[in-house]
Amino acid sequence: MAKWEILNIDPWIKDYEDDINLRMSEYEKAKNRLIGEGQTLSDFANAHHYYGFHKTKTGWIYREWAPTADGLYLIGDFNDWDRHAHPMKKINDEDWEISIKGIKTIPHGSRLKVLVDANGKISDRIPLFAKRVERDENGDFAAVMYNPRSKFKWSDADFKIKNDDLLVYEAHIGMAGEEGKVSTYREFEKNILPRIKKAGYNTVQLMAIAEHPYYGSFGYQVSNFYAPSSWYGEINDLKSLVNTAHEMGLNVIMDLVHSHAVKNTIEGINEFDGTDYQFFHQGENGNHPDWDSKLFDYAKPGVAHFLLSNVKYWLEEFHFDGFRFDGVTSMIYKNHGRGISFDHYDKYFSMNTDIEAINYLQMANELAREVKEDVITIAEDMSAMPGMCLPISKGGIGFDYRLAMGMPDFWERTLKKRDEDWDLSNMWYELSTHRPEERRIAYVESHDQALVGSKTIIFTLADQEMYWHMNKDDDNYIVERAIALHKMIRWITITMGSDGYLNFMGNEFGHPEWIDFPREGNGYSFDYAKRQWSLLDNNNLKYEYLANFDKEMLGFIEKYKQLGNMIFRLWIDNDRKVIAYRNKDIVYIYNFHPTNSYDSFAVPIHDMGKFKVVMDTDEVKFGGKGRISHEYIYNTERLAGTDYDGIKIYIPARTALALEKCDNL
């Protein structure tokens, strides 16, 4: 028996036992270098409780991590930005400290920076552990003392994290409103959370939470890792949002960017102590070739201390229920996975594999579970690294889920083909194939698929016809096709053996067009950086059909427990464009043919019993024609010319239906 269970779970990995042993031995070594005997990672990950500003009995103490700096001085409103009035003392080889008498000496709202003298260069920097960072009217970012009179009072003590059957609503606070502006935490709490709950989702995934100087970066160029973004409001506003979501029964997970950092030195952490290697790999290895950003050196104890403490900070301070780890593929390969087709296990286990980054991710997962037992962790990994979503105890990396990133790529490729050329066998393979015992989040489109240069799925299908033909009394073939396929694509994606599902904000009702944040190239326009909720709220428009379907689809998934199951292929007829499969007691039949309906299509079920349609995409409330009976009982029979049982059923073109086994009728 192999030492690590992953070698028994995945038969293809047995030839790489030495690589798994190396992964795990290096993990133990890395962890032991950080924590003392008898300690846990949670005991170690407390940098935020030591560094930064903290109250004392007599005032404030401020500590900073700047190993190679020659001098540090605290400056700000409180001392009229006197550059030498408050020198900091170096208390060991890496840390600096200063005590300030009197809490009121640095009042709430004071702007602060730290002057760093390093390598003959003097620069004004934002403290590394700043909890609040704001931009003034001149565009200058500075730390801000956040010490409100009243502490936020949480009321979510009874909330229990739901870590199974995730239905994830990916959202961006700033673009969540309909007005041409950056929306706020409070607006999201008041206006958007109720929509998410009503739509049937159970998990909110918030993007762009950590501070980022450039709004148009979508939050992926993080500058201040301990500061919730001030683009959307105050610290307590974010806490209130999370608290309210918990009161609604919603998980809240954060899009955590530990794969890279903004290269800015004025706003960010780059070259804080005067070197390019305090946080990052030295020289060119510290620069991401595509993202124009900096790359962490995860092997350094100080970096691990900073990042692991950051994981704990967001869980503790803001009650987040977990994370979607961004850019995992970039982290775990030294060439960041660029230009690689991961079609052989040799590409997962080679000198290109970044063991130190993998070890960091293992520690981040272990730590998160020490802080919150039921925490949710999701990996954004396009390479399908073996063991990504297996427990560390089994030789895995420890994530709960991976994003099934091949699915949206498959749909993007498929939608470029004529309907008659869709390959249903390939559809089955792309949507159903997954690593054994590794859970995945299925999705048709996230924010990535709608960024400028691309379009939402519905807009890819209907394009400009959506501008003119979305009234319910307006018959239009292109829009009708788009609505039919939009429903079928989402339904087959969520039901074909996935363990969870993700949708980006607004796509549940077929939000048109694309996403483009304000930037110089578009005249700093908000036209495509908002959500047009009025389209959904107008009962005369067809968007309501798609929202109705999405809500009932999610309810159907939960009612019949359709996530996390083994599915069984029943039939694929690529010529007639019909695919059928079974998930527990539900039989799904899809007719993707653009024109052909079938009056008495024989579907093998390999089971004796009675079946009844319980949901279909052709229902009138979903924008269909209502051609499928939900009352008729289908009795299985031996199909002519075969040795198996099945049913004969009417399947209209571009329609999907689900039948429940109901022998008790």
From TrEMBL:
Q: Which residues form the active site?
A: 326, 380
Q: Which reaction does it catalyse?
A: Transfers a segment of a (1->4)-alpha-D-glucan chain to a primary hydroxy group in a similar glucan chain
The organism's superkingdom is given as Bacteria
Q: Which UniProt keywords apply?
A: Glycosyltransferase, Transferase
Q: Which parts of the sequence belong to the Glycosyl hydrolase family 13 catalytic domain?
A: 152-550
Q: Which GO terms describe its biological process?
A: glycogen biosynthetic process
Q: EC number(s)?
A: 2.4.1.18
| InterPro entries, A to Z | A-amylase/branching_C, Branching_enzy, GH, GH13_cat_dom, Glyco_hydro_13_N, Glyco_hydro_b, Ig-like_fold, Ig_E-set
One cellular-component annotation, GO: cytoplasm
A single GO molecular function, which one?
cation binding
| EC top class, as a word | transferase
* Stated family: Belongs to the glycosyl hydrolase 13 family. GlgB subfamily.
UniProt-recorded name of the protein: 1,4-alpha-glucan branching enzyme
UniProt source species: Anaerococcus octavius
